[in-house]
Specification:
The chain is mainly alpha-helical and about 450 residues long. It is built from 20 helices and no strands. Helix 6 crosses helix 18, helix 12 runs antiparallel to helix 17 and helix 12 runs antiparallel to helix 19. The longest helix is centred in the middle third of the chain and has 30 residues. The chain starts with a helix and ends in an 11-residue tail after the last helix.
Length: about 450
């Protein structure tokens, strides 16, 4: 048995499960932070007399931060290691979340949420690279996809907490925004002691440390001495500008953007969107939480089938059918409440495949030397569209109405289907070094 098979063909262990759980803390906080603002703005907006523009900026501020933080975090995790930054970013979230409680004006709130977004964005490449580089190939897709499940769990938790705090105090929004510090503190404690990636250590010439981690995780006979040489050598970030990897970066960024623009817009302004669809008041917050349950169901189903149907097929069908659900919402915005909720639920379940693959494709299509940078850059680029879309939602609802807004969301989602049909690769069943290399069974149109 070579060292490669020790990593890629190992049985699923307790270590892998714990690492997946601890890594899911970042997505949980992401979903929580981006969703709690939607509930908080219901109370915060009138108190601070916020215009639609101001609400859009505050709603999109965390996404703007993610744009900066994801690329920076990716670069730093490739340069200094995954484990070093695995807890530092969450400590920043704790501090800034607590500081939101005393935010006296929209500018301070915007800045604090921008910083929180940077810390959340930095966690994407750190946690996913670490998980991808430890996980056996058979379980890599489901475990990386499972991170998205926790995003929606965080979002659902935010709506439940937000609704409860709205009824407690006139300044409930302050407690809502500060509440993210509690799960962040728990996750920091759980992550302490997580080992560094042996693949990264080996690439940096720290072979003895890499072997020590391998023995601890995989057994006394494990070693990195037979790890296959990855494409790119020590080329660093310049590797991303090669024609093949540049094509992969464009594909990942494009499909990621199409999958999150409608979703983040819905989550930042979920209660307001449902209110425009005649599901206002308390029903809007409860409806948002209920729809989030369907997002979880969709991601879990995608985890179950991803190795059976393949990455490419799952991505295409996810975009097509979820886009049709949004299209029907746009065409029939005055339908009965049961129909509206059913269509939102259908969108939530069907987009699960595209959501899961946001974490899987970037980690599989790039080598260890630049994996963190690639994940961070793709995440950053996708957040440009997401931030613009979130900023425009309140303006669009006022200027266009809910029907046209939903049609725009449908068009973006169906564009994702077209992009996937043209460029989505198939990486199921490949070892990590195989899926990252150019000229492998991964779709040559991308590489």
């Amino acid at each position: 048995m070579t060292a490669s098979s020790v990593l890629d063909d190992a049985p699923l262990s307790g270590f892998h499960k714990k690492l997946a759980l601890y890594s899911s803390g970042g997505p949980f906080l992401d979903g929580y932070v981006l969703s709690i603002i939607g509930v908080a703005l219901v109370q915060l907006g009138p108190q601070m007399h916020l215009s639609d523009t101001a609400q859009g900026l505050i709603g999109a501020s965390a996404l703007m931060g993610i744009f900066c933080g994801a690329f920076l975090g990716g670069y730093l995790t490739d340069k200094f290691g995954r484990q070093v930054l695995y807890t530092v970013d969450l400590i920043a979230i704790i501090g800034c979340s607590v500081a939101q409680f005393w935010a006296a004006d929209p500018v301070r709130l915007f800045v604090l949420r921008l910083l929180i977004g940077m810390a959340v964005g930095a966690d994407y490449p750190i946690a996913t690279s670490l998980l991808a580089e430890f996980t056996p190939r058979r379980y890599r897709g489901p475990l990386l996809g499972g991170l998205m499940v926790m995003w929606f769990v965080g979002a659902a938790t935010a709506y439940v907490v937000g609704q409860a705090l709205l009824t407690v105090h006139g300044d409930g929004w302050r407690w809502m925004l500060a509440s993210a510090a509690l799960p962040a503190a728990v996750i920091v404690l759980l992550r302490l002691g997580t080992p560094e990636s042996p693949r990264w250590l080996a690439r940096k010439g720290r072979v003895s440390e890499a072997n020590a981690v391998m023995r601890k995780v995989c057994g006394e006979q494990a070693s990195v001495s037979d790890l296959p040489e990855e494409e790119g050598g020590n080329a660093g970030v310049t590797l991303l500008w090669r024609s093949g990897y540049l094509g992969r970066m464009l594909f990942v960024s494009a499909f990621w953007t199409c999958s999150i623009v409608p979703l983040f817009a819905v989550y930042a302004f979920g209660p307001r969107i449902l209110g425009a669809l005649h599901l206002g008041g308390k029903l809007a917050n409860i409806g948002s939480a209920l729809i989030t349950v369907f997002f979880v169901v969709g991601c879990v189903l995608a985890m179950v089938v991803i190795n059976r149907v393949g990455r490419r097929t799952l991505l295409i069908h996810s975009f097509v059918w979820s886009g049709l659900a949004l299209l029907l919402l746009g065409l029939f915005p005055t339908a009965p409440a049961a129909v509206i909720i059913s269509l939102f639920a259908a969108y939530a379940v069907l987009i699960g495949g595209a959501q899961n693959l946001q974490w899987i494709y970037p980690n599989e299509l790039f080598p260890t030397e630049v994996r963190g940078t690639a994940v961070g850059l793709a995440s950053s680029l996708s957040r440009i569209g997401a931030a613009i879309g979130t900023y425009l939602v309140p303006l669009a609802l006022t200027a266009w109405g809910i029907g046209t807004t939903m049609l725009a969301a449908a068009a973006i989602t169906l564009l994702g289907a077209v992009i996937s049909m043209r460029w989505a690769p198939e990486t199921s069943g490949l070892a990590l070094h195989e899926s990252a290399a150019l000229g492998t069974p991964a779709n040559p149109k991308v590489g």
